[in-house]
Amino acid sequence: MEGFEIRTSNSKKGKGLFATKKYDQGDVILEEDPLVSCQFAWNAAYRYLACDYCMRPLETPEQNVRRLSCKPDIVLPHSDIFEINIESITNCDQCGTLYCSEGCRQNAYVKYHRVLCHDSSDAQHPIVVLLETWKQMHYPPETTSIMLLVRILAYIQQSSDPSAAVARVKQFCHRTENEDAELVHKLLGEQFTHQMNTLREMTSHVVSGDAVQEFLTPEGFCTLMALVGTNGQGIGTSPLAMWVNSVLEVTMSDDEKQQLDLFIDKLYQYVEEESGTFLNTEGSGLFQLQSSCNHNCAPNAESTFPYGNHRVQLKALKPILPGDEICISYLDECTLQRSRHSRQKELAQNYLFVCWCERCTAESSEPDCTSEEEMSDEDIDADD
């Protein structure tokens, strides 16, 4: 029996996810695969090899850290504790797209790849042209990908019941036309109108037909862009991080543990010096249940990806009682620790709402200044 339900939260939030049973801290509330997911364009261009369907990395932890640090002689202790099954990697026999398993290859083909299969070496192919155009419009740090939108359209086009597929996609759409336009403006910047028309025209050369026509109109395309921009859940997978998590669970002496900690610290130092903080295979996906979770600045749940692929796990951060709304944070950990005004500014800019959670309400008497403005001159001088 599921321990949650989706129902109306309030007139401002719309729908929300609510507990129908008690959850203790650490309990898994749900696990879910996305409707579609996609690796970010620049992330793929930077040679972060991943399964084109589930985003599982296609390199071992040792290969991963050697590439990121540019140190080909690094040897990881206990390297067999977390290994990528290289032997199971397969590819589309027509276009060469890589998958971590035959199951993922078949799932992709059934869901969207039959429409999107193409020769990626053909610089004039509509998908290649669209991707390159998108990359010039949307530099890192990436928040979404035009290919997530394209896969939605291909999913509808390939469906045996396109009307049902459209209805499923529309469950993610609950903003007004003006709100959609404002969100896409934020995503694309000042060249918003021109870029939207360019992307829409290019996308229509990739996927077209009666089943998707409503999403290829100016209004429909804007709605779909807003959908992937706001409902797309970020996905991050890392062979190195999963090796670290696994190796820290190995039973060893205190001296061995200390040496391991120093070794791991050194690894991350090497990686940061060479690659910065751009460490993970990154992308986004559309999750029907998880996307119903509203934001709270004191969340009682968090989304994680414990399996090293696009399967999300929603886990309780604190006890949750029946009837409680299950909320996550739309903000990263750093922003979440900042002032109310800073959090509100971030949420208003990226999600077009004002948060009135318990924490924001309790802090409503605080001055309306950002965290940077709260710093005194002495603090700023001390940082210089």
From TrEMBL:
<keyword id="KW-0863">Zinc-finger</keyword>
<dbReference type="InterPro" id="IPR001214">
    <property type="entry name" value="SET_dom"/>
</dbReference>
<feature type="domain" description="SET">
    <location>
        <begin position="2"/>
        <end position="331"/>
    </location>
</feature>
<keyword id="KW-0489">Methyltransferase</keyword>
<keyword id="KW-0808">Transferase</keyword>
<dbReference type="GO" id="GO:0140955">
    <property type="term" value="F:histone H3K36 trimethyltransferase activity"/>
</dbReference>
<feature type="region of interest" description="Disordered">
    <location>
        <begin position="364"/>
        <end position="384"/>
    </location>
</feature>
<feature type="compositionally biased region" description="Acidic residues">
    <location>
        <begin position="365"/>
        <end position="384"/>
    </location>
</feature>
<dbReference type="GO" id="GO:0032259">
    <property type="term" value="P:methylation"/>
</dbReference>
<keyword id="KW-0949">S-adenosyl-L-methionine</keyword>
<keyword id="KW-0862">Zinc</keyword>
<dbReference type="InterPro" id="IPR046341">
    <property type="entry name" value="SET_dom_sf"/>
</dbReference>
<keyword id="KW-0963">Cytoplasm</keyword>
<dbReference type="Pfam" id="PF00856">
    <property type="entry name" value="SET"/>
</dbReference>
<protein>
    <recommendedName>
        <fullName>Protein-lysine N-trimethyltransferase SMYD5</fullName>
        <ecNumber>2.1.1.359</ecNumber>
        <ecNumber>2.1.1.372</ecNumber>
    </recommendedName>
</protein>
<dbReference type="GO" id="GO:0045814">
    <property type="term" value="P:negative regulation of gene expression, epigenetic"/>
</dbReference>
<dbReference type="GO" id="GO:0005737">
    <property type="term" value="C:cytoplasm"/>
</dbReference>
<keyword id="KW-0479">Metal-binding</keyword>
<dbReference type="InterPro" id="IPR044422">
    <property type="entry name" value="SMYD5_SET"/>
</dbReference>
<dbReference type="GO" id="GO:0140943">
    <property type="term" value="F:histone H4K20 trimethyltransferase activity"/>
</dbReference>
<dbReference type="GO" id="GO:0008270">
    <property type="term" value="F:zinc ion binding"/>
</dbReference>
